[in-house]
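Hey,
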Amino acid sequence: VQLQASGGGLVQAGGSLRLSCAGSGSSFSISAVAWHRQAPGKQRQLVARMGRSGFTNYLDSVKGRFTISRDNAKNTMYLQMNSLKPEDTAVYYCRQEDPGYWGQGTQVTVSS
């Protein structure tokens, strides 16, 4: 199963984007969810994660700018990205950890 992510695009530095990802199956509401990103020539890195309890953690460089959230009624996770920087440019992937589904990736490009 591949999740469907959307909301990426081209934005100027300082702008905002909101990524969405439709989860799958009845396990979504009890699953930890996360957003990862991969820039060209770099390894994929965890950007934000929300555990089953709702506890969140973030990559240091996005703290205070990005917010992960979810709507279990809609089986959807979100990543609100504010004050975007050129170094945030990457393909962003959503993940539903139970049972281990990935999204197809959505490109975010931040111009200076």
